[in-house]
């Protein structure tokens, strides 16, 4: 009985660790945006803030940058470095930040 409990506990810890690692990865991706859009999307005056913006609007903009439908100086190049799912995760992260 103890071995089953230990296996279940180890499995739960493993799953929790994977979930935590996934959250950290999104934060790493989002940190790459800080140079222009500020820490956690809180931009300095003159730059576009991302914190609290609509997720779906951000996803559409990012996909438009990635696919060359939206002109940009650098965003089109940066967006190409991420999968569509990664861009969706980044947009969700910024949408969840308080303005």
List keywords for this structure.
99 residues; mainly alpha; Cytochrome Bc1 Complex, Chain D, domain 2; 5 helices; 0% strand
How far is it from the N-terminal to the C-terminal residue, by CA? 50 Å
Total strands: the figure is: 0
Mean pLDDT: 87
User: Main beta sheet, described?
Assistant: none
Helix content: 55-70%
Which residue ranges are poorly predicted, with pLDDT under 50 across at least 5 consecutive positions? Answer: none
CATH architecture: Orthogonal Bundle
Instruction: Tell me the CATH superfamily.
Output: Cytochrome c-like domain
The structural class is mainly alpha
CATH top level assignment: Mainly Alpha
* CATH topology-level fold name: Cytochrome Bc1 Complex, Chain D, domain 2
- The rounded Rg comes to 18 Å
- Number of contiguous helices: 5
Element pattern in H and E: HHHHH
Taken from the alpha-carbon principal axes, the silhouette is globular
